[in-house]
Structures
1.
Amino acid sequence: MLVGQGAADAEAEVMEVAELLGAGVAKALLGREVLPDDLPYVTGPIGLLGSKASDKMIKGCDTLLMVGSSFPYAEWLPEEGQARGVEIDIDGRMIGIRYPMDAHLVGDSRETLRALIPLLRRKKDRGWREKIEKDVREWHDLADRWAGEHFGRTINPQAVAAELSSRLPDDVILTADSGSGTNWWARHLKLRQGMRASLSGTLATMGPGTPYAIAARFAYPDRPVIAFVGDGAFQMNGMNEMITVKRYLDRLSGPAPLVFCVFNNQDLNQVTWEQRAMAGDPKYPGSQDIPDVPYAAYAELLGLKGIVCADPKKVGDAWDEALSARPARGPGVQGRRGDRADPAAHHEGAGQEGRQGGPARPAGHRDRHQGRTPEAHRVRRAPSRPGQEVRGVRRRGGNGTEVVVVTGATGGVGRATVRAFGARGASVALLARGEYALERAAEEVREAARTRPAPGGGRLRRRGRGRGGLAGSRRNSARSTCG
């Protein structure tokens, strides 16, 4: 069996079918979370980044059942004529485009498997299953031996993944970029029940590992998130996305770790070795070498946590530090690899590095709410100091009063404008994200009203809802209201 992301909701059905047929199950990279890797008949990944157990199963099978996968590499599927084919896909146009299929089953994977199960007879001869389970055990032993090899004082990147595997939190979400680090992410991280994983599986695009992790944290703020990213992809957009982490630090931090593990080998490593190993091309440094950047120091520069690991004996300790760091400032892990010219580099050559964000400031310190109303139009208001302009919106309130809304009212020129309205006796309603920003702005309005008393006394209405909340007064004031 070969399963992909289309079988994500059919875990129980896939397991039942595999048990009835005595089959092994290989997983396309986007289907990693369909079944846990601790099942004895799960052969793991397939293809260039796949396992030896998957390859042996595909080469020896007489029937191929594909479920919810568009796995595109025909060279990693059975030879044409070797096996009968059955494919389940919700899109009938995708069936048979990778391998000639004898039975085309168009439908949802879970519902189709449920309809199919009563028609299957349990296979009494379990010899094929036993062979697959033996191959799986041998593959895991081989991968562990590879991860245990070291080359002088340089870090074996397989050890980076292997050391993390046993430390993975139970409900972790894993993301990966496209590069040599994806090999180790696919081969050495053993997913357990409830873990999730994703990458740019259909495009093999460089750059998505970091934003995928950020998006995962936004969607699941209480779950640990770990990204495997190459230094090439991290230089393309990952470093910029660390500024995004800083921008949304109050929402991305929490009790669970958020870790970006950057494999630092100053090389476009996957491309380097694909071209040399598969095409016989010599390495061309002009297009494959990349600068050595101190990523952990960059993380610290942004107020995040940076961890550097350059000692093969301390990879596990670095992961322990990264995974145990908590909100004050989150962790990351960095490693360093030596000789990029060694052919072993394709399997053993990369280091790692990363960081995680946590709350370095009081909640709400940096966030501002900028609202617009459908009937609003832009105006320019008189600033508190000559030579300045403040953008805002003006609309009529329900009782005929004029309401002025100043965006960004908790910082800079906006605060000066709010003080000016407060000093002139306006009724001021404040909207802010978090009590900290709200209280700062409110105090300034009070101070302005005290220092420059005016008719009406500078009445203040304010509302707020802790970290991450947006609130404000929605009632029309008897006087002009600035928020």
2.
Amino acid sequence: MVDLNFIISPDYIGYYIARSVFLSISTLLIIGIGYLLFATGYLKMRWLESLVTFFFERPYGASGILQKWRQINRYAESDSVSKQKLAVMEAENLLDKTLKRLGYEGDNIEERLEQVPKGKIGNLNEIKIAHELRNDIAYDPDYQLQKEEVKEALGIYEKALQDLEVI
């Protein structure tokens, strides 16, 4: 027969209590870390981002970009010159934010565009021309913007966003 007296020995009881305390603390810490990760939304966001990218074959947040692009087109179709100017500025801002989200670093859109691999965006030179138009609008409040310029600039930005596969 097996002698089980060692279970009630003082040495074993101390070991059992210490083990139970550390196991309890470890379990509470792991549960706390898990709770914080879910409460902050970090894991949920990463998981959702991965699923959207996998199933829809487009970057996470692309639907928001598409909604923003529709709003920009509504501005461009307006008869108001100020809304047309806003459309050009917002289109460049959308491209800039998209480049940031895709991981291109730099202080401004020009620096980010330099980091884009050749062939990724087919109309880099045209984007620079549209950027000059945007600067004219931003820095000259009396700039006389023509509707054709708006359509041309938005076409350039739209092509770039299509090349980046966000619209």
